[in-house]
Design goal:
Layout lengths: L2 E4 L3 H12 L4 E4 L13 E2 L1 H9 L3 H6 L4 H4 L1 E5 L7 E5 L5 H4 L5 E2 L2 H14 L3 E3 L2 E9 L2 E8 L2 E7 L1 E4 L7 H5 L3 E6 L2 E9 L12 E4 L7 E4 L5 E8 L11 H12 L6 E9 L2 E5 L3 E2 L2 E3 L5 E2 L6 H22 L4 H21 L11 H5 L54 E5 L1 H15 L5 E5 L4 H6 L6 E4 L5 E5 L8 H9 L7 H5 L1
Helix pairs in contact: 1-6, 1-9, 9-10, 12-14
């Protein structure tokens, strides 16, 4: 088995979707019998929707999400149904300027079945009610011991991806510690049914900040109709867990609703601990940490799952490159170097700056990668006073390749996802003929796309005949602002982006 994925939550399932997108066989092992049955995360950021779009998931996820016109708001009031409240729209850059997509509100228990079906339909081996109870590593990969229905078997894989969450055992088994601000008290989430849809018509939002029954209480959108999830601070020293009976939970919800006449049906409650911590290492041998196994954030901004989605997006094509033989080990080593700083930024932003309705486009669209597989062009990095909220599109190496509308409703982002893409203009296309012939000798999958739109030059920061090399994950690996000086530059850039030295002996003498 090329890749064993431990954990069948949203990040583990998306990891499987991504690997199958590249044709890589994988197995997902999940200890629970099915997908999530209790509401959890719900914000799907613009960048995550872009990833779904690239991997053919956007339409199906949109179909199970809340309607954008009604849900992309933030509510602030004493109680959910009280007369005194404010409802503010969540700010976004012009969708046609920064992205071909826009974020969604999709409760995780609705998202996971979509990802599970997609992973299964694409040929991933999914095994629920199955648990990894131990694993060992050697120079050639990982041997994991898994238990299903009381029977233990060994699974051999070239790589193991740990998507088993904050309570999973893989990180601790690897001896990887975590750093960061830590935990911030305890909370309880209470799920109820209440027929208040008609009363919420002018209030519907993604999150509802409340001052009652306790400061810091809130409701979060589930379906914005009959299912409602309330979250409130919880102190186990003054109110032990066993005292949170159904009656007490309903009492808390009524305090948040502000109307005792509403008929409620209690469904269940969960305790949880808001935490902001990041693993000190993302790779140990042939095992990689993704999602909550690698980082946890405070709930403000809904950054946790989205950061995990970006982990999977960054890692999937790199695993494919290694397994297919066109990448060197340095490419996989870049995973931690690129993803860990972004997780730290997300954890920091979740402490307050990312709290809705504050914008987060700078954080999710403007993240910058610095690693050995990205060739800098020594231009100045764009500066902003608000790196969390303000996104500045730029075609500089290490940045997400900017969105530009092309013909037939396509975006430049729609060009990426399967191979490296060399972008140029008609003048650059003529100069690229010899360069492409040389680049083909690298064996690294790539295509050339010509953009005949003057706006491309300013947006990507290139002159006439310039070239921008974009990775399969949509990040710029190399940029020649003007026409390349030699026909070998594109091939050298491809090699560096795949983790090799710029030239091999054939190219040096060719």
């Amino acid at each position: 088995m090329p890749v064993l994925i431990v954990g069948g939550g949203p990040v583990g399932l998306l990891m499987a979707v991504g690997l199958r997108h590249f044709g890589v066989d994988c197995m997902v092992v999940e200890k629970h019998a099915s997908t999530l049955d209790f509401p959890k995360g719900r914000r799907v950021t613009t960048r995550t929707v872009e990833i779904f779009r690239q991997w053919g998931l956007e339409e199906e996820v949109s179909n199970v999400s809340l309607p954008r016109p009604d849900s992309l708001f933030v509510f602030d009031g004493d109680t959910l149904l009280g007369a005194d409240f404010q409802r503010r729209g969540m700010p976004f850059d012009d969708v046609t300027r920064s992205s071909p997509t826009r974020e969604l509100i999709c409760s995780q228990e609705q998202l996971e079945p979509v990802l599970r079906k997609q992973a299964q339909d694409r040929g991933a081996d999914l095994r629920f009610s199955t648990e990894v109870v131990g694993f060992t590593q050697d120079d050639d990969g990982v041997t994991a011991e898994i238990v299903a229905h009381g029977e233990q078997v060994s699974v051999r894989a070239a790589y193991m991806v740990a998507a088993d969450g904050v309570r999973g055992g893989t990180r601790e088994a690897l001896g990887v510690s975590r750093s960061g601000p830590g935990a911030f008290g305890q909370r309880v989430s209470i799920l109820v049914e209440a027929d208040i849809e008609m009363r919420m018509e002018q209030r519907q939002s993604a999150v509802y900040w409340l001052r009652r029954p306790l400061s810091g209480s809130l409701f979060v959108a589930v379906d914005n109709k009959s299912r409602w999830l309330m979250s409130a601070p919880y102190n186990p020293e003054t109110e032990p867990g066993e005292s949170l009976t159904e009656r007490r939970c309903v009492e808390l919800v009524r305090g948040g609703l502000g109307d005792d006449s509403v008929e409620l049906r209690y469904i269940g409650h969960r305790f949880w601990e808001p935490t902001a911590l990041v693993a000190d290492r993302y790779q140990v041998g042939s095992v990689y940490l993704v999602g909550d196994a690698a980082h946890v954030t405070m709930p403000e901004g809904g950054l946790g799952m989205n950061c995990g989605v970006a982990d999977a997006h960054n890692l999937a094509w790199k695993l494919d490159g290694d397994l297919a033989g066109w990448a060197s080990p340095a490419l996989l080593k870049s995973y931690e170097r690129e993803r860990r700083p972004h997780a730290v930024a997300c954890a920091d932003a979740s402490l307050g700056p990312a709290r809705p309705p504050n914008p987060i486009d700078g954080l999710v669209l403007g993240q910058v990668y610095h690693s050995a597989v990205i060739t800098p062009d020594h231009t100045a990095e764009p500066s902003t006073r608000d790196p969390v909220g303000e996104y500045l599109p730029v075609g500089r190496p290490g940045h997400r390749a900017p969105h530009l509308w092309l013909d037939h409703g396509r975006s430049t982002l729609d060009l990426f996802g399967n191979a490296f893409v060399a972008l140029t203009d008609p003048a650059g296309r003529r100069a690229l003929d010899t360069a492409v012939d040389v680049a083909h000798t690298t064996g690294i999958p790539h295509v050339v796309h010509v953009i005949d739109d003057p706006a491309w030059h300013d947006l990507y920061g290139v002159e006439r005949g310039g070239i921008v090399l974009v990775r399969p994950d949509g990040y710029v690996a190399w940029r020649s602002i003007g026409p390349p000086a030699t026909s070998h530059e594109l091939a050298a850039a491809l090699r560096v982006a795949a983790g090799h030295t710029p030239f091999d002996s054939d190219l040096e003498t060719g």
